[in-house]
Amino acid sequence: MQSSASPRTGVVAAALELFAAQGFDATSVEQIAKAAGVSRSTFFRQFGGKEDVVFTDHEVMLDELRAFLDQPHDDPWLAVCEASELVFGHFARDPELARRRYEIVREVPELRDREIVTVFRYERLFDEYLRQSLPGIDPIDAVGFSALVTAVHNHVLRQLLRGNRVPVSTLRTAMQDVLRRYGVHPDGSDAASDDVVVAVFPRSMPIAEISRRVQAELS
After folding, report:
1. Rounded CA gap, 202 and 33, in Å?
2. CATH code, domain with 123
3. Assigned domain for 212 exists
4. Three-state DSSP state, 150
5. Could you give the residue ranges of the DSSP H alpha helices within the chain?
6. 41 in the Ramachandran plot: left (φ > 0), alpha (ψ -120 to 50) or beta?
7. In this predicted model, what pLDDT tens digit does every residue of 75-123 receive, in sequence order?
8. φ and ψ at 170, to 5 degrees?
């Protein structure tokens, strides 16, 4: 049976091909609809405009992530990392389509601006989820963790979009490191009785610099 998402995927593929061939601004909705084999009215039922064609996968993923995070999770920190893997897996299933979208976005200023807003929507979703799931959490921790997960995800995804073979295990390993850096890794063990670390830093030194120095010494 053909999935209901297939017609939308066909429109997206046709639109990206036209954008790449003749430019985003020079491509009309009528041209996209004709290339995809759908009517103009059908196009507007599926999408609000040309920009929405480019970002439709993100809208789908944001809805899926909300549903995923609404499910019970024993570890909210881990759930956010798993949500980022769902997004990566979605785009990794058709990397060529994702790469074409990436190239179009890079070339069109208004699309780059919308991409920034879209990234923030992921961060906000994770931030709100952590605050709801962990009452009493420091808002800075919720914001910082959400931003770090999103940034690390995008860093790994960009490697895929630039033509490299990047398995989801690469992102999973990176997320394990994110959890460790925040001290919330589920496999974290208690310190041994003889583990003693003494460090002295100037009061004015930024926390990030202290963290880097401590990590360098411990490794």
Report:
1. 63
2. 1.10.357.10
3. no
4. helix
5. 6-22, 29-36, 40-46, 50-70, 76-92, 95-107, 109-133, 139-161, 168-181, 207-218
6. alpha
7. 999 999 999 999 999 999 999 989 999 999 999 999 999 999 999 999 9
8. -65, -45
The answer to whether the beta carbons of residues 36 and 10 sit under 8 Å apart is yes
pTM of the model: 0.80
Tokens describing residue 84: 């980022």
> Are 175 and 81 contacting, i.e. CB atoms less than 8 angstroms apart?
yes
Length of the chain: 219
Q: What share of the chain is helix, strand, coil (3-state, %, to 5)?
A: 70, 0, 30
pLDDT at 215 over 90: no
Residue 207 C-beta-side C-alpha neighbours within 13 Å: 2
> Is residue 103, in this structure, part of any structural domain at all?
yes
- What single-letter DSSP state applies at residue 166? -
Distance, in Å, from the CA atom of 40 to the CA atom of 42, rounded to the nearest integer, reads 5
Looking at the fold, whether 97 and 176 belong to one and the same domain comes out as: yes
Q: Domain holding 44: CATH number?
A: 1.10.10.60
Residue type, 14: A
What are the residues whose beta carbons fall under 8 Å from the beta carbon of 82, sequence distance 6 or more?
Answer: 68
Q: What is the DSSP letter of 74?
A: S
